[in-house]
Amino acid sequence: MQRALCAFATVTLAAACSSSAASDHPPTVRTSDAVEAPAASPTSHPSAPPTFRGSIGRIAEPLRARIVRRNWHPGCPVPLQDLRVVMISYWGFDGLVHEGPLVVNQRVAEDILGVFRRLFRAHFAIKRVDLARKYHPKAPIDWNSKRDVTAGFNCRPVTERPGVWSQHAYGLAVDINPLQNPYVRSDGSVLRKAAKPFRDRSLHLQGMIHPGDVVVRAFARIGWGWGGHFTGIKDYMHFSANGK
């Protein structure tokens, strides 16, 4: 109605109306991926905040080929058909929303989806979600690696205990931000140089997990235990169905 009145008024009145409308609704500019978006019109509404996106699916191509080459082989304690891929959205260290795959046992897929929905709503930052690194039984752990991937299934033994299947080998464990939440031996040593600063658990830095925080509570709600509660060694990244 205001625009219609301005159109039929005097030139002076039209200019005044136009100036008033502009001052009441200053244009807004949003950016994405460092590319400036066009200015929004004065009557446009701000975009809705990002919402969590998640899904559960069977292991199909091309992901199946990646897993077979990388994380699963005949002789693993869980059949490939018993695994599921949980696609989740998460807040990255860059403050943006990303998506990635978590491969877990089918019987815990719904629970894991719920956990990461809670972490997303809490804006807990995750460096990257992807498949676990391929396990090489005779290769030493790379002391200089800065790999920082949140992952689930991986057909491998318990760290530093050859011959004992890890809960990861059953798809019943998840490691979160392994650099910020390192595996710490009883003597205080870590597996990788880049994780050394994060032995100090009094720090509250991006991606770190602490007793009673949203990550520990979210996993506790589905009955999973945290490696930060281990005696002797501490595995701050690690959550598992049996608490081991």
Care to describe what's here?
The protein is globular. Helix content is 20%, strand content 19%. Helix 1 runs antiparallel to helix 2 and helix 4 packs antiparallel against helix 5. By secondary structure, it is α+β, with helices and mostly antiparallel strands. The N terminus is likely disordered. The chain starts with a helix and ends with a strand. The chain has one domain. A 3-stranded antiparallel β-sheet has the order 3-4-5, covered by helices on one side. A 3-stranded antiparallel β-sheet has the order 8-12-10, covered by helices on one side. It has a two-stranded antiparallel ribbon with strand order 1-2. The longest helix is centred in the N-terminal third of the chain and has 14 residues. It contains 5 helices and 12 strands.
Structure at a glance:
With 244 residues, the protein is α+β, with helices and mostly antiparallel strands. The chain is built from five helices and twelve strands.
Strand order of the largest sheet: 3-4-5
**Total tally of structural domains:** 1
Number of helices: 5
Chain-averaged pLDDT: 86
Regarding quaternary structure, what we see is single chain
Number of strands: 12
- Low-confidence parts, pLDDT < 50 over ≥5 residues? 1-44
- The share of residues in extended strands comes to 15-25%
Q: What global shape is seen? A: globular
Q: Strand pairing plus helix content: what structural class?
A: alpha+beta
Distance from N terminus to C terminus (CA atoms, Å) equals 68 Å
The ordered string of helix (H) and strand (E) elements is HHEEEHEEHEEEEHEEE
Q: What Rg is obtained from the alpha carbons, in whole angstroms?
A: 25 Å
**Share of helix among residues?**
10-25%
The biggest beta sheet, please? 3 strands, antiparallel
